[in-house]
Structure formats: structure tokens, C-alpha cells
Amino acid sequence: MHEIVQKTYLVTGGDGFIGQHLVAKLVATGHDIIVVDNHITSMPSEDTPGVKVLQANIEQLNLSQLPKIDGIFHLASIAAPRLFREHPMSVIRPNIHGTERMVQLAELNSCRLIYTSSSETYGNAGDSISSKKMAEDHTSAHLLLSDKSPYSSAKVMGEEIIRSAKERGVDSTAIRLFNVYGENMDPTLQGRGRVIPNFLNALQQGLAIPVEGDGSQSRTFTWIGDVIEGLVQLMQHHRELPLVMNMGSEETITILDLAKMMATVIDIDPIIEFADRLSGDPDWRCPDCSLLRQTIGWSPQTSIEEGLRILISENLIRHPLI
User: Fold this and answer.
1) At a CB cut-off of 8 Å and minimum separation 6, what does 43 contact?
2) Nearest CA to 113 among 69, 178, 177?
3) What one-character-per-residue DSSP string does 273-298 give?
4) Is the pLDDT of residue 317 over 60?
5) Cα dist. 125→131, 273, 276 in Å?
6) Which of 55, 44, 50 is CA-nearest to residue 20?
């Protein structure tokens, strides 16, 4: 057994959904964590030994006041689609100016920077007819100035900043995440654009499930535990990482079938309420994660049905159906 060397990691957006799970994993394995979060869409976490929380916008972070950093996980960004148009600068700043600041910090500390990008960088370029999975060099197609474009455009620019940094020798990579879900997912954002907590909230309250469009649009959903394992492995990987990699499940499901599956797991006859879709919303997405598998051997271990059963059983304990 190799002894774990205690390190100090900085996690931007560390009080968010993915951030909380990542911080818990890193602390459990003996590391010290600095969380930077402005708490626009997250709640401050409880005091935890080994975790220091700085409430701040990352683009304004005073780097000279930080201790030696061994690695940076840059997760900070609003991620709820219904908020992209309401708070566009809160999407743009952390992904562009914040990424620039994190590159500076990585340079100062000669450490690895992992930037969490998004499947939204592909826009609506997915091809459901050929079912060709989306590799990292897949064509991107964006509806300009759409409901989703503040987020997708900011993530594209964040990747360009990572590319520029990598070309001048900064140890960095961008990871395109595909619809991460799991326990404690965005509890403050129900009804504001995250499909699984929206559906679960409706089912728990006996309301109609709000499906946008006709529900035929398909997605892949990736269990939080699988994503956290992948991010930690990437930070610990001893070889140079590729510039950008997909991380997600390759199991597609339509949004309507997702609603029906969740209702089946809870054993409820679903009532579906259809609504307008956001502009710029794609019809199909599925990642090709071959590059990530070749790099660290990662692949998701949790099917969508398995993950939903875990998630729903946990929520039924905390919020039993009446």
C-alpha cells in the first residue's frame, strides 16, 4: 500500500452540487481543501475539518493570500439552464475571467488545473439519425444569442483559455461533463431547469411532471460517484493529460422516457405536463469517451436506472411521499 501524501487542493464552486461531493471525497482521502464559492446558486456548507471556505468571486480572488496549492479543480459556474438568461454575467465571468485567474494560480504553483467544461459546447450538433457519438473533435453548432448561449459560449471560451495555457506549458485540461446527477443535486434550484430534480420534486409533491417540448429529445445522464472518481483519477494521473476530454455516460434516454422511468421507480402513475423548450436546446447528445478510457481507464459504472433508484431511495428517506 502506498502512503497517501497529504496535499492542498483548491476547488472553485466547491459548495455546489459536484463540488460538495468532490470535496467530501478529497477530505476522506486525507487532503486539505480550499473552497472558493460566491454562493449565488449554492448554500454554504457546514464547517468541516480540513476545509477552508472563501466566499468570493473567483475572478476577484487575491492569489497572494493563498497557501501553496497542489492542484486546482475549477467547477465554478451557474449550471441551471433557466438562470442563464437571468444572470448571464454570473455565467460568463467565472468561465472566462475566472478561468484566466485559475490559470495564473496554476502557473504560480506549478500545479495541475482541471477545468470542468460542458456538453453544451457541442450545441445542437448531435446526430440522432446516425447515432454517431460525439468525440472531442465533433462539429459544434450553436444558435447565437439563444437562451442557452451565455453558458455554452462561456464554456467554449473557457476551453480556449485552457488551450492557450497548455500551449505555454501549464499542466491543464478541460473536461466536458454530460448531465451529472445524484444525491443532494441543486436543492435550491428545483423548478429552474435541472431536469432530474425537477421531475423528482414534482413526483414527491404529486404534481404533473414538467416535460419541455414533446419529450423526444434524448440525453445521457452520468452518476455523480462515477464523475468524482474520474476527476480524482485525472488529478492523480502522472502523465500529461490531453487538452480536452468527454466524461459522461454513453447510455441515451429520451426526456419523456426518463420521466416515466422515475415514476416507475417510485411506483406512481405519471401525469405529464408539456411546456415550451428553451431556445438552443438540442434534440440529441451522446459522448464518445474513448479518449478518457485510453487516458485513465475510466468508464461509468452506474446505469441510469441504477442511479435513479439510489437517488430516489435516498430522497424518499428524507422526503417521504404523502
Assistant:
1) 15, 187, 188
2) 69
3) EEEPPPTT--SB--B--HHHHHHH--
4) no
5) 12, 27, 20
6) 44
> Between β-strands 209-212 and 244-247, what pairing exists: parallel, antiparallel or unpaired?
unpaired
- For residue 127, what is the DSSP state? B
* pLDDT above 90 coverage of the chain, percent: 70
CA dist 122 and 152 (Å) reads 8
User: Measured over all CA atoms, what is the biggest interatomic distance in the chain, rounded to whole angstroms?
Assistant: 58
Band (1; pLDDT cuts 50, 70, 90): very low
Report the topology of domain 8-181+221-250+281-302.
Answer: Rossmann fold (3.40.50)
Cα-atom radius of gyration of the chain, to the nearest Å?
A: 19
Q: Which amino acid is at 288?
A: D
Bridge partners for 223 per DSSP: 181
d(CA 180, CA 7): 26
Tell me the C-alpha distance between 53 and 47, whole Å: 9
pLDDT in tens, 33-49: 999 999 988 888 888 99
User: How far is residue 207's CA from residue 271's CA, in Å, rounded to a whole number?
Assistant: 7
Residues near 320 by beta carbon (within 8 Å), at least 6 away in sequence: none
The arithmetic mean of pLDDT across residues 153-173, rounded, is 98
pLDDT > 80? residue 318: no
- H or E stretch at 225: helix 224-236
Continuous segment of H or E residues that includes residue 153? helix 149-167
Show me where the domains of the chain are located. 8-181+221-250+281-302
State how far the Cα of 208 lies from the Cα of 199, in Å rounded to an integer.
9
